[in-house]
Backbone:
């Protein structure tokens, strides 16, 4: 009997608000909501693990409360580019984040850290810097909801995608591991309209996009074009 090929799932656009205008954050998020965004990516940097400081639990709490007051149903993904990730994970769970992603490079005991974040009652992700091999997380993937492959060196927004063959090989291999253990594959760093379609073809599920949206003159139109490539 003939069976049609399995339809690929739609990709998820996860705008990073790192480059948003924080003096006008309500309107910035409302624009995302009007454009159909359901997932917000929070880049949390501590100035130690990476050479930059962004915002912490207090600002995150205000942002989440703002969305709740407006009845915007959003999923908040906190990407912890921090030392002592379990300490910070607890604090970002307390203020309402739905997914906590910790870096494999930030702890000597990744399995223990993953188990701790899971015990907080949220989804858990693990992230890898560009030069960190997939083997460093392979044995915890059965326990996680998401694998984040960084395609820039973390610490600053607006960087260019590391466009080398081994990066594409890493994403392809990550897809196979995610299929095996049924976790989502996220890519963060230099994702733009010019490469998001290709990343979708490689099997990426969740696309973190920052400056490509917030530096655009027409943010809603840019979101529409990005979503067209991954849906």
Residues:
């Amino acid at each position: 009997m003939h069976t049609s090929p399995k339809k690929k799932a739609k990709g998820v656009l996860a705008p990073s608000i790192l480059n948003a205008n924080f003096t006008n954050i309500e309107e910035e998020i409302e624009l995302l909501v009007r454009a159909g965004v359901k997932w917000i990516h929070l880049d949390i940097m501590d100035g130690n693990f990476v050479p930059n400081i962004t915002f912490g639990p207090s600002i995150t709490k205000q942002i989440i409360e703002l969305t709740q007051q407006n009845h915007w149903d959003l999923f908040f993904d906190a990407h912890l580019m921090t030392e002592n990730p379990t300490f910070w994970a607890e604090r970002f769970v307390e203020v309402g984040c739905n997914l906590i992603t910790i870096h494999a490079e930030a702890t000597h005991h990744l399995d223990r850290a993953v188990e701790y974040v899971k015990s907080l009652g949220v989804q858990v992700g693990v992230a890898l810097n560009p030069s960190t091999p997939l083997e460093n997380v392979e044995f915890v993937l059965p326990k996680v909801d998401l694998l984040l492959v960084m395609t820039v060196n973390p610490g600053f927004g607006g960087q260019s995608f590391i466009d080398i063959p081994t990066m594409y090989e890493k994403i392809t291999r990550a897809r196979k591991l995610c299929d095996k253990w049924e976790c989502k594959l996220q890519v963060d760093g230099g994702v733009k309209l010019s490469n998001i379609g290709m990343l979708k073809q490689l099997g990426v599920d969740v696309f973190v996009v920052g400056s490509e949206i917030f530096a655009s003159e027409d943010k809603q139109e840019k979101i529409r074009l990005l979503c067209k490539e991954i849906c």
In short: Residues 1-6 have pLDDT under 50 and may be disordered. Residues 165-181 form the longest helix (17 residues).
